[in-house]
Write a structure and sequence with these properties.
alpha+beta; Nucleoside Triphosphate Pyrophosphohydrolase; 8-stranded mixed β-sheet; about 20% helix; phosphodiesterase decapping endonuclease activity
Amino acid sequence: MAGARRLELAEALALGPGWRHACHALLYAPDPGMLFGRIPLRYAVLMQMRFDGRLGFPGGFVDTQDRSLEDGLNRRLLEQLGEAVAAFRVERADYRSSHAGSKPNVVAHFYAKLLTLEQLLAVETGATRAKDHGLEVLGLVRVPLYTLRDGIGGLPIYLENSFIGAAREQLLEALQDLGLLESGSVSGLKIPARH
C-alpha cells in the first residue's frame, strides 16, 4: 500500500467505522523437492494472480457480519481457494502485521499459515473449483525460493512482477522472518531495479 503506515493490531482494530479491513494470508509448506535434481525447493509458498493482473495473497475484505478478522479471512479463503481450506484455519497466532492507508481508509492485515505439503497440494488442486476462480482469482502461483546461476532467474525475476499494495514487501519480510530462504539470501539477492 503506497504511503501506508504500519500499525499495531490493537491500534488497527480501534480505528473508527469509516475504515474497512482487508485480510490476506501467505500459505506455505515444507517441500523436500528438487528442481532439475539439484536445486532444493525448501518450501512451497502460494500467491495468486488477481483479476487485475497483479500478484497478491488470497483473502479480501472482512464484512461486518464476520465475528473476527480471522473469520472473515477464512470465509474469503474458502471463496477463493475452495473446500480444501476447510482442513485448516488461519488463527490470530498466524497474524504478522497491519498497514493503514489514508485513501480509501483501508487497513490491510497480513497472516502467514504453515500447512503440510499435502494440505497445500489439496489447495492447489481444488482451487480451480472455488467460487471465485476465473473471476477474482485467475490462478495460483508458487514463489520460486531460489536464484539460478545467472543471478536473475528464480526469485529475483519473480520480484519484477506487478504486485498489489504491499504484497511484495510482505512476501520478502515473511520469507526472511520465517526462515524460508537460506540465511542472508534475501539481502544478498541481485534484485533487478523496479521500473
